[in-house]
């Protein structure tokens, strides 16, 4: 066996063996990671749906509470009003509320009115589940969830559903609502298919790269000497550096999300507690102080949930529920309440904005107000959003201490995140500041511009 052949074998055999091992380990690791991510995604998705159900029931209770607390109404009259209200309450495409008395008689069912007046205490779904009894049981514990199978309109096909129920104590009625899980399972199946496709694509690309590398090594080994090992080392180092850069970029993205989201809520919680402390020192009513502490507790609970779903709460729920204009107004109201800084707010946008632009502007406003609160010592703020043809312009101007030039600013992550968040959606970020003359941050975004990955 010639020297060249030995050199080729010395290079090729370890390469082939190591490549096969790496591909195997890579595929195994990718599949294990995909399974873990799917499990976490399903858990977070179902929890999010549960919280949505709880919120819907709380809203329904808020709608009927004035009737329940009105002692001037007789039971019969009050019951008819409550049933009428609940019958008319709907949400999303197929969301409704149902009511049963303590004996299992249906009192309200908007989608299947033929059930009203029927005693369903002994009714079982297709899996043999006494669903009314179980819903009643969890409702009597103060509210709870239960899975069962029910007919989904308009085709009335059997589908798994998760329900949430509470008791209307005045008449011992059970009030509940439910959410069909078909969409959840479809979303999980889609996520699983996407992950499997990515794994297959990764396997194909790795195999192609490995094959090309193997051919190159064989061809080059016929013409060159052992110096090629050094070249291989340099290529490997470049590959490692690229991998490390990708890790840094991913960490930066995660850092930005943590800073713009969770950190802001923690800051709000801090100021809530400080506000409660200030009110306590002023001997304000304990109920007022308690209300502030309850709000702080709510912020902490929300922060915990956001940490558990750190990858998915990329869109603030306030934007879904109320829209960007009202969401910004809520931010400003909280800001004024904490800081006593007056804010003049203007929102003049005609077209519906894409989701990514709404999120970017909302987070941009959060960061701008936080920076004003921490650093500016301002007394007045002007925050305005308006549309000019196919562009949306955001400006936030304060009358604080400002700075003579940007280099005097501390290199905090906030300003960097503001710039990166706007540039990520294809916008332009402008920062202007003069010492003792305030600071203005602006963002100009095109509604029709493509989003950069």
TrEMBL record:
Q: What's the superkingdom here?
A: Bacteria
The record describes its membrane topology as: Multi-pass membrane protein
Specify the Single Cache domain's residue ranges. Answer: 42-133
Which GO cellular component terms are attached? Answer: plasma membrane
Lineage, top ranks: Bacteria, Pseudomonadati, Pseudomonadota, Gammaproteobacteria, Oceanospirillales
Q: Give the catalysed reaction(s), semicolon-separated.
A: ATP + protein L-histidine = ADP + protein N-phospho-L-histidine
Name the UniProt record assigns to this protein: histidine kinase
- What EC number(s) does its UniProt record assign? 2.7.13.3
Q: Indicate where this protein is primarily found.
A: membrane
- Keywords of this protein's UniProt record, alphabetized? ATP-binding, Cell membrane, Kinase, Membrane, Nucleotide-binding, Phosphoprotein, Transferase, Transmembrane, Transmembrane helix, Two-component regulatory system
Keyword Transferase carried by entry: yes
Q: Where are the transmembrane segments?
A: 7-25, 203-226
UniProt subcellular location: Cell membrane
Q: What is the top EC class of this enzyme, as a single word?
A: transferase
Molecular function (Gene Ontology), one example:
phosphorelay sensor kinase activity
Annotated PANTHER family: NITRATE/NITRITE SENSOR PROTEIN NARX-RELATED (PTHR24421), NITRATE_NITRITE SENSOR PROTEIN NARQ (PTHR24421:SF10)
